[in-house]
Structure formats: structure tokens, C-alpha cells
Specification:
By secondary structure, the protein is an alpha+beta fold. It has one domain. It has four helices and seven strands, in the order βββααββββαα. The strands form two sheets. The chain has a five-stranded antiparallel sheet, with no helix packed on it.
Length: 122
């Protein structure tokens, strides 16, 4: 099970099933495409996140400000790096990115289209 601490302000935008991209520290050019399986109910401070992770991992985990805990299932076969499958281990650190806002490129280029496209998604 992967546990991710995301900035608390993103909690209203998170939902199960969102894509999550994991980049493990020390393994450049390797990433795992996962999906969010669960989200914590509350936004908590750095101390609460460290207590939840435990003394072995919590001290090594950099946290700035309020966070929400997000969970994802890891592949039981591990991750691929340099063409080989390698196992996951408790305590491995990395970076996780969750796409909470997405829009078609044309809307990014012509912001006036946003109101028109939002009518179709309601």
C-alpha cells in the first residue's frame, strides 16, 4: 500500500480513481502509473502525519503544512528500473503526482471556452 501526503488544499478535488504517477527517489526515469484507492477524511498537520507513519519513516519524511493522506495499491510485482522488475520495500520515498485539474488544451489557450465546456459537464 502506498501512502501519500498531499497538500491539504487539494482535499475537495480528490476522489478515488484519479490517476497517480509515482517516481521513486533514487530511480530516475522510472515511474509507476497507479490510481487513488482511498482518501483520508481530514486534513492534518505535519506532526499527525509523522505519528501516523511511525518513528522509522516519519522522521525521514519532509512535510510542509497541512496534508491529506491518499492511498494507492502498489503492483505486487514491484517496479521496473533499467529493464528489470525490482521489489517495493517499506520506507521507500518518492514523489507522487495526482492530476486534480485537467482541461483540454484548446480551453487553456482560449480561456473563454471554459464556460461553454462546463455546461456540457454538469
Amino acid at each position: 500500500m502506498l501512502i501519500v501526503a498531499l497538500p491539504g488544499e487539494y482535499r475537495p478535488l480528490l476522489r478515488p480513481g484519479l490517476p497517480l504517477k509515482l517516481q521513486l527517489k533514487g530511480y530516475p526515469y522510472s515511474h509507476e502509473n497507479l490510481s487513488v484507492s482511498a482518501i483520508g477524511d481530514e486534513i492534518v498537520g505535519p506532526g499527525a502525519v509523522r505519528r501516523f507513519l511511525g518513528t522509522e519513516i516519519g522522521d525521514a519524511f519532509p512535510i510542509d503544512g497541512p496534508s491529506v493522506l491518499v492511498y494507492a495499491e502498489l503492483s505486487p510485482g514491484g517496479f521496473t528500473w533499467e529493464g528489470r522488475r525490482r521489489p517495493f520495500y517499506d520506507g521507500m520515498l518518492g514523489r507522487a503526482d495526482v492530476a486534480v485539474r485537467s482541461q483540454p488544451t484548446i480551453v487553456a489557450l482560449i480561456p473563454g471556452l471554459r464556460a461553454w465546456t462546463e455546461r456540457w459537464h454538469d
